[in-house]
Amino acid sequence: MQIITTHKNTDFDGLASVIAGALLYPDAVGVIPKMVNPNVAQFLSTHKTAFNIILPHEVEHALVDKLVIVDTDRWQRLDRMEKLKNRKDIEIHLWDHHPNGGDIEADWSCQENIGATVTLLIRELKKRKILLSPLVSTVMLIGLYEDTGHLTYPSTKAEDAHAAAYLLENGADLYVAGFFLNPPYEETQKEILFELMKVTDKRKINDHSVAINIVRLDGKVTMLAGIVNMYRKIINADAVFVIFVSESEARSTVIGRSGIDRIDVGVMLKPLGGGGHSGAGSATVKFTDFSPEALKKLIIETIEKDQKEVAKVSDIMSFPVTTVPPKTTMREVHLIMADQKIRGVLVVEDENLLGIIVLWDFKKVKQEKHWDSSVKAFMARDITTIAPDALPSKAAQIMIKSNIGHLPVVHDGKVIGIVTRTDILNYYYDLLPE
Ligand SMILES: [Mn+2]
Q: Which of 239, 265, 327, 384 could bond to 256 as cystine, CB 3.0-4.6 Å?
């Protein structure tokens, strides 16, 4: 009996290497440890029957004459293989991508520093021109991507990328791969998630809930993006930015996730040399460019600046408003306007808005005696008002459409301020980059 097995807490590279091994050793049966990673368990629950694999307790150790070990070189990491350890009559083959001096003494081995073990097996499958089905190609691609961080880890070699291309040529399905590559939460990832929850810094920036955290990492942690995604969902924020700090590499990686159009992560992180799209992005920033704390400040400022468009009328209106009672004369009102350098005055009685008088209305004063008439006779009574929580763009629209320069801001029937053309212009010009 020939068996192929891999390490406990099997990851996709381990599983894919066992499956690839079964193609290279057609007489062998794959043995998958009882304990596998959550995403591998999920995959096996639906795909197990597609492969010739068994569990360790099903192995008849006495009958084993050839053992192929993939993705580890230590006995201790194998599941229920102790009985085979000291047998001299067993031929052992070893495939692994971390040559770090394990205790398995193989009769033949292929151990190289490369992104994933499966890459080594793909090399051989390719050489022997062994046909790969789309399903097998997909599993191998998942293993390859998982161990190389989608070909981004520094351990990735050009051959890993070539191997990925070969699997895609053979029909590897990126939709399936994407599904299984998403959140497998391991201990370290859970710890980071809990850490984020503990120190969560959720704040309101204008109308949006945003969390910006700084987390210090020791060692390599995979699936950070998945953690940030989950974190945003748990705290129910519109957007989150997590700055992962690696002291040893003197750099931070900021990962952003946004669920709203107003905060475009890709656009925000681009000036930092990062990339992404509106909903997701990341950037790696050296300490020499921005310390983690400076980075946090920069992100907050960027959101504040980009968010100006969601300012409300109440943020840009002028107040207090100059008001006069209806019996005030035109002469008095004219003096008040000149004195305060304003172009409009509201006519109010008992807090009720009766009308508005603007500079333009003084052109209607043709006779000297009219200067002593009350403002009531000249004011405009048909007044358009706006609510304090309306958008400045709404105020601008009304002004243009109705050709008016003053919009009283009314809340609960009371005038609380006024928006003028000048307020609108100041607001929009402030938005333009300098
Ligand atoms: Mn591996």
A: 265
In 3D space, the residue among 313, 309, 312 whose CA is nearest the CA of residue 406 turns out to be 313
> Which of 160, 181, 202 is where one domain is finished?
181
Query: How remote is the CA of residue 72 from the centroid of ligand 1, in Å?
Result: 8
**Token pair 């990735």 in the structure block, residue:** 156
Residue bearing tokens 């008002």 = 385
Give the domain CATH number at 407: 3.10.580.10
Token match 């983690």: residue?
292
Distance of CA 342 to the CA centre of its chain: 48
Q: How far is the CA of 190 from the centre of ligand 1 (A)?
A: 21
pLDDT digits (tens, 9 = 90+) for 318-345: 888 899 999 999 999 999 999 998 888 9
Q: Measured between alpha carbons, how far is 386 from 394 in angstroms, rounded to an integer?
A: 9
User: Alpha-carbon distance 283 to 241, whole Å?
Assistant: 11
Q: How far is CA 32 from CA 10, 24, 37, 102, 103, in A?
A: 8, 17, 11, 20, 20
Tell me the pTM.
0.48
